[in-house]
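Handout, page 2. Input:
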Amino acid sequence: TYQILHQVAGRAGREENLGKVLVQTYMPENSALKALVAHDRDAFLANEMEQRKLFKMPPYYRLATVTLSGKLEKMVKQRAEDLARMAPQSKDIDVLGPAPAQMSYLKNQYRYRLIVRMPSAPLRMTARLLFPPPMNSTTQRPRRFASAGRVKSCVVVRWGAS
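Output:
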């Protein structure tokens, strides 16, 4: 928000021709707007970093997005719910979702996603580390999901600021 408003406001005037910027908002108390009016980028950045730490967001925490897709919406949703339940239980790990992905239907595929938030993660993190497969109690081998169709998954890790 701050960057866009700063850029747009900068276009309002050039050299000796001073311009005027009018912003219509329902939230005049917004920290980005206050910093922009005060021409105080450093205050905005300090506040932003404080908020990111408080709400466990990058760069203080890491985000991994797990996207599942398949032709049968019910199956994709069920698999996403299963993965959310299988995620490691820890006070430091939050699993958000599942929810329909931003583009919930793409190329004849239904899409759901989970977001996993954690304080740090090794560079070699994989979906298997985040979501180990359930073990078969008799064979001690990973148990496969029963499926009537294919569900694919993809993990994307955000290391820095989002």
